[in-house]
């Protein structure tokens, strides 16, 4: 067994277990990630994030994201912001670059908020990806309640549905079927959004591999891009979620900036089996 330090962090309720593997390198298996994420017997989180040494120049660290079910995610906006805040405090900087499978992500601290450039929103059907050629601005699912999706990739696949009242949608019932819809060969994050103005929208998200979450950074970016493409909002807007708001801006160069607060809930040590099996014992220490 190896004792590994962790931080429990969140961005307006979207929560993460952050493990630092830069000094003492270790791998986290799918089973370990699922055990850590379990809210009854583990630490509890939407995603586990492993910080690694940069594999190539250009980034301070590499990030790996594991969903609550142990599957991998290519990108995580709030998770990236949380790690960026942690590392900026560590090195006394107000800006740094992190590498994910979605590419190099520039992060900064501005006016008490943590900002990440999530890269370009990719709107081609192969980019999402979809199972067949389609106009990604209007994708028919055949599910009456949510039949008209606007799709894009923010490093992971997103399908956003615009409704009159996002809070009235039975996302717990519709989310699982849509996540695994045959249209989405890599599954998809499902967002339901209602427009509150040209610069404000309400969003709820069913996250691929995690279920309903209190917030979703990449989902906020995808919702803004979808709304702007449809002419429903400007290219910059407040995204209202369960426990607070994020702000997203879709720049003219195609990049999407995501900003908002982050917080650390507690930190401690966790014991991981060297063979990659699930967590046996858990040790927490309050900050």
Name the beta content range: 35-45%
Helix proportion of residues, in percent?
Answer: 10-25%
Order of helices and strands: EEHEEEHEEEEEEHEEEHEEEEE
CATH superfamily membership of the largest domain: Diaminopimelate Epimerase, Chain A, domain 1
Number of domains: 2
Number of DSSP strands?
A: 19
* CATH level 1 class label of the largest domain: Alpha Beta
Radius of gyration computed on alpha carbons: 18 Å
Unreliable spans: 283-287
How many helices in DSSP terms? 4
Distance between the termini: 24 Å
- The assigned structural class equals alpha+beta
Description of the structure:
- The chain has 287 residues and is an alpha+beta fold.
- The protein has 2 domains: 2-112 and 262-285, Roll (Diaminopimelate Epimerase, Chain A, domain 1), CATH 3.10.310; 121-255, Diaminopimelate Epimerase, Chain A, domain 1.
- 16% of the residues lie in helices and 42% in strands.
- The chain has 4 helices and 19 strands.
- The chain has helices at residues 30-37, 77-91, 171-179, 217-229, and strands spanning 2-11, 14-20, 47-52, 61-67, 72-73, 95-100, 103-110, 113-120, 139-140, 148-153, 157-162, 189-197, 200-207, 211-213, 236-241, 244-250, 255-260, 263-272, 282-285.
- The chain has a 19-stranded mixed sheet that branches.
- Residues 283-287 have low confidence and may be disordered.
